[in-house]
Amino acid sequence: MTELIRAQTPQERAGGAPDDFGGVWPNQEPAGLAQVSTGLYTEHLPVVGRTIMDIRRTFADRLDIDPSAQPVIDGQLVADESTRVEPGQRLAFVRHAGEKGVDLTPE
């Protein structure tokens, strides 16, 4: 009896299976999307090519972005909010509530 064999997909040949977004690796963002997070909220959004300032303004209500939150891309603090987000980057808006060891009592 002759057995029919299905051809492998490119992902199977590469050794991985596609994730929910169609990428080969689980941490790979689909084209045009980047991860945006703040506090408890994290979403994969179509923000590639947009500035941090524009993203903050557009998603302020949806993600409850604090106006004083500092932008961080891939773990690095970003001082210039005109920086554009690239595919696969992770943008987080963080607000530091305090620092351990700092004495706030007046002298």
Tell me about this structure.
The protein has helices at residues 10-14, 52-63, and strands at 34-38, 41-45, 70-73, 76-77, 90-94. By secondary structure, it is α+β, with helices and mostly antiparallel strands. It is elongated, with a radius of gyration of 20 Å. The termini are far apart. It has a domain at 28-94: Ubiquitin-like (UB roll) (Roll). Strand 1 and strand 2 form a beta hairpin. Residues 16-25 have low confidence and may be disordered.
Which SSEs are present, and which pair or pack?
Blueprint: H1 10-14, E1 34-38, E2 41-45, H2 52-63, E3 70-73, E4 76-77, E5 90-94
Parallel strand pairs: 1-5
Antiparallel strand pairs: 1-2, 3-4, 3-5
Concise account of the structure shown:
By secondary structure, the protein is of the alpha+beta class. 16% of the residues lie in helices and 20% in strands.
What tags apply to this protein structure?
5 strands; alpha+beta; single chain; about 110 residues; 5-stranded mixed β-sheet; Ubiquitin-like (UB roll)
Q: How big is the Rg? A: 20 Å
Category by helix and strand content: alpha+beta
Number of helices: 2
Order of helices and strands: HEEHEEE
Distance between the termini: 91 Å
